[in-house]
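Worked Example 4.2. Read the sequence first, then its structure tokens.
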Amino acid sequence: MNEHDYYPMVKHAAKAAGVKVVVGVRFVLNGGYAKWAFKTPYTPDKLLFTSHDQLERSRAELPANVESHAVDVFGNGRDLDELTSSLFHEGQATWKCKGGSTVVIGTASSLRPRKRIEDFILLIKEILDSGHNVHGIIAGGGKYADPEYVVMLEKLILENGLSSKIEMIGNLDEMAPFYRSIDLFVSTSELETFGMSVCEAMAFGLPVAAYEGGSVQEVLSDDKYIVPNLEFRRLVDLVSDMVENLENHRNYAIRHKSRVFENFNAPTLACRLNDTYKELL
């Protein structure tokens, strides 16, 4: 089961058939869900969490019958080879005027309050006010957006006179053109159980700055580029330095790229999952 919230629908069939069950946990467990879904005699043979942070936030919810050897941190990811090798045409660029002295700063997420996109907007304003030539791009929207939150963000951009400096480009089905159109990536999310957009940005060799964001710090795994949640001034200082010394930070990004390909690429995850299956069988 890749999504643990579907588990109650199949646990009875799995129990009747006597088959091993591996369940991927996709967000923080709370509200007594796990104690109900995983109770005896429907205990999964293996629970896979996407990060240590997610596991620790969920641990108190696990029923006593789920033993420690049945719990593992598996990670998350995607086919990064396919993502980064997709063909690119100039017309696909989200900001076609990229170039010159302008540094393009991007963020990508579902548009919901815990993503704190308002911090990204105000970050761009602070960097512009300090005299740097930057342009901000916000990717995300559609069915993954909180409509009231989107209206608030649009109003914030307008009130700060940033309409020509920040673009909200909506939901994207293909992410590669977005990552190829920016110079650095910023994550302002307070809580992620993995941090897929950070992983993707790293795969493109982009310098990344982020709030610790729950599990984001585990994906990035470099204290130089991680700021405690909501410490906005520290984030501004970090990104300002990245804008001023972009080439230097790109050198660090090469190491970050190697990290995500070694740990979160689909072939690596497939081998890890195969080992889990063999262990149970």
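Now turn to a second chain, presented in exactly the same format:
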Amino acid sequence: MKKIHFFVMISVLFSCDKDDYISLPEMDQNQQFISKTYSGEPTELDIKLLAKLDSVSDGAGVSFFMLPDNDDYNSIPQDPLNPITAEKVELGKLLFHETATGGNPKTSSNLFSYSCASCHHAAAGFSAGIRQGIGEGGVGFGTSGESRVFNNIIPTNDIDIQPIRSPTILNVAYQDVMLWNGQFGGTGTNEGTEANWTNIPENALGFQGVEVQALKGQDVHRLLIDKKFAKNFNYKKLFNKAFRDIPKEDRYTRETAGLAIAAYERTVLPNQSPWQQWLQGDFGALTNKEKKGARMFFGKAKCFKCHTGPALNDKKFHALGMGDFDDSGSALVIDDTNFPNVKRGRGGFTNKPRDYYKFKTPTLYNLIDNGVFGHGGTFTSVRDVVEYKLNGIPENIEVPEERLANQFTNVQNLTENQITNLVLFIENGLRDPNLMRYVPDHVNSENCIPNNDTQSRIDLGCY
């Protein structure tokens, strides 16, 4: 395959033969250039797409959208209070999937049957694969989490279920607050919201959202990681390596476990997706239809207005009028007293009317693997979501028209072919096919992962 060497920033210069040049607008002499080796012949589509990326990134070009390697810790956004190290990542990867962490269930028969990965597993793009994620009290898995259901022989209040669709952990390094309403996180976006931190543990104050969720989540989801756990399941050596600077009496705790899990989560990046390969210079990584879809994404469809940067999210909150959970066969609302706050999204946390019905912009990588879409899981295909956004007709009649985001209503009409190409780019171009590299072959307990209930063991082939 022929390789082409050129510099990328505001403009791109392609050289196929000694006297055959195709150039974009002149380079700004003050810009730093990035030297890349591109493989494959650049087509007109590639050239136009590269120009579009320059336009929507204020001249930064492809570098603005690139994800780092998952072991390039210096390039991965991180909490300065929790520097990423290989030892933390190794420990966190195991703890995240370890079903022996499920040590504080409400029903004793559920002991050691669930983990963080029960609701965030690789088979579903690190989401749940169902409308409502289920930790304790869930049974079964299927092939990608689609067959996990409520265990109806235990009390409903003993089931650990999400009040909103489980978001993916992909690209959480590019978020400083977590959850759909952004309530977890003590810096950046949440500065000035301290009066509303009613359910954030004291040991999480000052940390960014990824760390706060990893700390708080152990309470919410009935996990138990302590010195006894570390000893019984042979994790003490890993804790020792990851936290050698912490006194031994403080080393095997929920706090250190949370920091290790957060460090691991920050490295879970879909950097082997065709889009990322194209950005790195492999022009053949995307099909022509996907390239046309990418041009729609960063052009006429205006997806980039909210979905931008390496993670394709703007770290903001928008009201798109999507539906919420309800009591049905596919969703179960338990805490009716708090549910109005859940439905108000960001406003349910900040208590500010201007934030009502706003939910955090999600990343779009591996979206197709999720199976359900929208904060309430009311969509079942990527195309449904795309058409909903383009049509601009709210699904949720509770959301006042004046609260709907401007981005929801000002999109030009796209043809059927343009919509199809856009969907192909999102489904295929943004899908990393090798997320299993972030899953351990086994955990120290030798339990089944990500679930360890009887039906899941059968589904997953753990005997």
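Notes for the reader: The radius of gyration is 23 Å. The mean pLDDT is 89.
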